Amino acid sequence: MAQLKNKKSTIWTNPSFSIQSNSGVKAIYKSTLLICLPLILVACGFEQYIAKPMDTKAIALKIESKNPESPQFQQFLINNGFSPEHLPVKQWDVDALTYCALFFHPSLDVARAQWRAAEAATLVAATKPISGINSHIADSNNANKDISPYTFGLSIDVSIESANKRDIRIENAMHLSQISKLEIAQTAWQLRNFVAQSLYETQLNQQQINLLTQEQSFRQQVVTIYQKRANLGVASNVELSTAKLQLQLSTAELNAVQHNKLVLLARLASHLGLPLSRVEAMPLLQDAYNTSIRSSAGSIQVKPEALNRAALLNRLDIRIALERYATAEAKLKLEIAKQYPDIKLSPGYTYEFGSHVWSLGLSGLLTLLNKNKLAIAEAKQLREVDAAQFEALQSNVIAEASAANAKVIQAQQALTQQQKLYELQQHNTQRMTQRLAVGEIDRLELTFSKLEDVIAEKNIALAHFQLKTAINQLENTLQQPINTLITQEKLEALSLNQ
Description:
Order of helices and strands: HHHHHHEEHHHHHHEEHHH
Strand order of the largest sheet: 1-2-3-4
Number of helices: 15
Radius of gyration: 40 Å
């Protein structure tokens, strides 16, 4: 206590020290206040963490509540060109089902969320380096009585990027955002492909059910006729057993096709993003493209050069590959820009034992020594990899387009052949009906002829399905409806002729 009193008396009895001490303390208080006040004000706007746990029950209810007849979806259809007079949809074709998948399927929500994240990354890339602030305060043991025992320092670090690094980061982020945006369209095309294929499988299943029902009826008639003949001793039991065996095979095939119907509807519901109960109530189009294919089976012909041009211009994965190559270019530019060091300016003020000191600091990495050679070499190699992948992708796309077009041509030829066979079989059945009318043949022969009609029609249904599948695969390869491509080719031909 005595020492403390002596120290206080010494401080107050030394006017020069008192002034320096008071001015130092005031400067410290003022500087501290100037620093803390903005920090306190800024702290009021801090983002607070808000927990968002996953509610599985609510998600399940959301999935079950999806309804293609909801007002929101009806408005979505109107916004995309559907006439309000034709809503709700009376027959769900490929286009209507595709819009349904675009509205309800969760995979598009994932792709959109990834795109929004990429957009946020673009904003982050555009931010400039944040300046830093440094300060310190100290108190000495006052060994030297004629100076202030306090010291206080304050400096600000201001980063200055060189060689347009910020613009290059923005460019790279924009290319990544464009990739995410194109992946949304890629997901939409995949959904269209899955929906169309599922619809065609469902249509084939329904046709098979109808035709197998007819076949079962005719085979039952055959068994009945043989049974009567066997009872009269006109037919053998071997013929009756053979007829019964064929009836059993037809019944087993019909049962398998009927059981497969629910599986196909469940697959379609999965591709639409709807509950199975909703899809079961939807009136699906029975035979898409049926009329157009019957009338013009050989009209779907596209020149190879038009196919290649359409594939190379419309394929989304090619556009994505171009954006990936652009990101590789941006990364290389960024590594080259990193040869030039960033500069950090640090202006500061220090109050040190009664003295006011102003300073200016300058710092930067010594990148000029190695010039970032290894990172640049790596970026160049990665660019070469993307270039090679793009070239390989183009080659694969051209090969896929040619193979898909060949399958369409082959399916058209098979359908044409099956139609000719069906027409011949119909003429034969007509002749058999006329012969039965005049008593030249019995009813068993006519029934077998009708069975052959059903089998021929089953072959046509299968050929239709194979052609629709081939067309769908070609459209998915080109990522363009085949009708628009044929229309474009006709318009080009007309313009050249004129």
